[in-house]
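Example 3.2
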Amino acid sequence: MNPGNVVYRLIVLAALTLGAIIYLSPVLLPADMPLPKFLPREPLHLGLDLRGGTHLLFTVEVDKAVENSVARTADELRRELKDQKIQIGEITQEGVTLSVPLSGSDQRTAFDELIKNRFPNLVVQAGVSDGPPVVQLSPSPREQEQIRRFAIDQSLETIRNRIDQFGVSEPSIQRQGDQDIVVQLPGVQDPQRAKELIGKTAVLEFKLVSEKAAGAGNEKMQAANPLPGGASEYTLDKKVLMSGSAVADARVRPGTQLEGPYVELILSDRGAREFEAITSENVGRNLAIVLDGKVFSAPVIREKIAGGRASITGSFDIKEARDLAIVLRAGALPAPIKIAEERTVGPSLGRDSIRQGVLSLLVGGVLVVLFMAFYYRGAGLLADAALVLNIIFMMAILAAFGATLTLPGIAGIVLTLGMAVDANVLINERIREELRAGKTPRAALEAGYDRAWAAIRDSNITTLISGLILFQFGSGPVKGFAVTLCIGLVTTVFTAVFATRMYYDWRLSRRQLLTVSV
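Structure, written as tokens:
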């Protein structure tokens, strides 16, 4: 056995242990003590069940998402029909069905060809030949199902983006069932602002203020703020000139003392070109900026506006302007969402859970340590030292990954410690058998570790596979359990097998191990 190799391995083990202890040191130091940048201020994040916070269950109105998609398809269809010079009347929508009145039967062939080539997901429902033909179109059942699934996925991503910018540490956002999304916000005790931020649909549209009285081609829309003269609504053209999809970024600007802060919109390249064309063609008219069905402002277009920037004003305070910028940056929800369930968990429950979890961990750990020391003597004390190392490495890795500790996670830690002890029991029993067979300490140690390794390896690999499956397919609490279990299995094998073997190899290399206390 090469003594230099053993010393090198011990140095690596000591360095890893020291690094883990330093990395975990913030939990023992005063909160206001300055720390190096590489150390985390909070070594472990606590989950909702330990820290307290807000639990929200949202239901996505997926049928509305299909209707919104059909409405956008209607706008595209109008443009395509105009480009192809196919004469039609006013397209109307009822639910997911579009009614398209053609100007004459001679238009039907060209219309059908356009639908086939440009809108293959639309299905012709009926054709009415009484007078000018009216064609009814709707998305195919398969297309409607895809839109519903996409609405859930997009809502999930949009909510996640909004919460990330909201600044909540370690949120949990998960899909539940066919149209529900569960949001858990640890540390958030005021859910109202979170609900408003998450639930805002944020559909941004640019429309012209109508120059005609209310009629078929326009609509009345509420103003977000009172208008001069006491009016409360605008009459707008129905046509949407540009939507929020053209917004690349949104930022809060301070504004003036009279108007307060406002939100500056930075448009994408495509959006900048569209906005320039819109303002160039409508100089002298009022352009309404509509968010979630309310007109926030309707400034007069004085000249063509290039550069890809616009602004939303509306007597905001700084918090309202910041929240509006967040939802515009994160994108619009594809469909309205409503709150199906709301719970606020107080931090007192978390403190009780932590106290009970730590108490169970300490009681179980002390009993295991005493049993190992009493039953296996020196080898038991070595196993206890490996157990302490196991906890230190496990916590350091959890902190490095930014993991969130939950009650199921604590259960995973307790289970891991039990498996660590089990590995040392297997090793010590094998060493006992070899010593009873009359082998020397060196031979007994080598045979004991070699014979125990197969059982330890197989049991940990099968448990690791189970943990990975739980992490892949489980929900939040199950994932918390799986994370601590998988990390604990890796640290268990390292400390219970390799670290203890290093100690024995070091003693043997120095010829100090004449007997094995086991």
